Amino acid sequence: MGQRKASRDGDRKVGRRALLIGGTVAAAGSAVLARDELARLWWRTPGVEKPREAGAVDYKGARWVAASDANWRRADRPDDFGIDMVIVHVTQGSFDSAVKAFRDPGHKAATHYIVRQDGHVTQMIRELDVAYHAGNRDYNERSVGIEHEGFVDRPQDLTDEMYEASARLTARICARYDIPVDREHIIGHVEVPGTDHTDPGPHWDWDKYMRLVRRARTTPA
To answer: Top enzyme class of this protein (predicted)?
Structure first.
């Protein structure tokens, strides 16, 4: 849905700088070339990934629950795909139902995080990797997706605890990748080109949320 047809979603890109270095090495035919540089960029060669620790989270305080491998693909972000966006979702169901869906290989979609109504944060996909959450390949590759427990037509589901916890999470993501805290870079699923989703819906208070993100962005972690 709204995806480019140039290659399969599982195809892997290599950074331009890595290609240039590889080409120079081939031309020079010498192991002398930029050993320190090559050592620093070793993970950008095809088939090589950054070291990973099972169960590790990117956001302190989050609980790890792994999504099905069918609902995301491995990447080495932000080195192969730059991250410049956070996309806000609402689950249209309970927290438990969202976790169950994201662990189901037949669901074919998942976000990096889910924020519960009480403010609890669960991470299901590493920020390194591309989650299938936006319905648009380009936006998937460049964003971190955050689900929020509730229904778009129930304003009472959007609790203060959830707004505050999500704002802290978004602020840390923005700090980590130098993402501007504005509505061009923090968007709703409904704003993704080609999507047929309406979340986070008419009751999502963007003024409140952005105010909380800006406040959290200037508060020491």
So the answer is: hydrolase
